[in-house]
Amino acid sequence: EKTIGGALGTQPQLMSYDSPRLPSITPAIKHLLILNAIVFAVNAALLGRLSSYVGEGGHWFSVSWDLMCEGYGVGALRLLSYQFTHSFADPWHFLGNMIVLFFMGTIAEARLGYRGTLKLYVAGGVAGALLHLALAAAQGYADVPLIGASGACYAFLVYAACRTPNAMVFNVLPLWTVAAVLVFIGVYSTFVELAAGYGSGVAHSAHLGGAAIGFAAFRHDMFVDWSDHAGVERSGPLTAMLDGFRARQERMRLAAESARSSRLDEILAKVKAEGLTALSSQERRFLEDASKRG
Q: I want to staple 61 with a disulfide (CB 3.0 to 4.6 A). Which of 8, 50, 159, 291 is the partner?
């Protein structure tokens, strides 16, 4: 993630596979890459007005506390728009994020499915922005705009590392090690900023917000689009609640039938031992009802 005036300091290396071919791009990641590229091109055509001030205007897609308060709440949409916006003057920030999105996102989408991948992208970006804005405001930098997809990319990085921890990066380090090192750098850099003041131009806390969402999403099976997994369909919350209610009703019905059966056996045993005349009026009615049910 990047604030205006700085660049992304550290990016994960390219994944290395046994085959020289690149992994097949998945649908959601393909669409996210295209959308990011379109916004980057539009920002370049507008000379950076989406990501920075140009003359008396600009920062149309950036996010900060002040910018979110614009337009009677419409400014909150910047929590989404900032995730697709990169400075055209810093193409390496854009390219680095897209590389991470391509490699880590394809790993994640194999589990998340199309809609789940989009949800993780948005959730990672929103969590990263909110954590960064909260810490920046605490340090007196509430008006510093934020841009970039790094929060979302860190969500995919951690999710992919949890899903395939032993995948090798350049045949040197397992993916979980790379992810752990980058998250540690984010933690330490955020600590330094809190202790010594903000000023690096890199929103390390936004990386951490995205990473936290990626870990939580994997740990708790969040955002998974179960309709994309044949034979692994999982009910939604309402359907699960109704299924649970029906199951309880069925258990109660079976318990009642079992009790009636036991009661009928007792009455029949009494008739066999003592005759019909020994039955009480209540037992006679029970026996009549049982015979009507068949």
A: 50
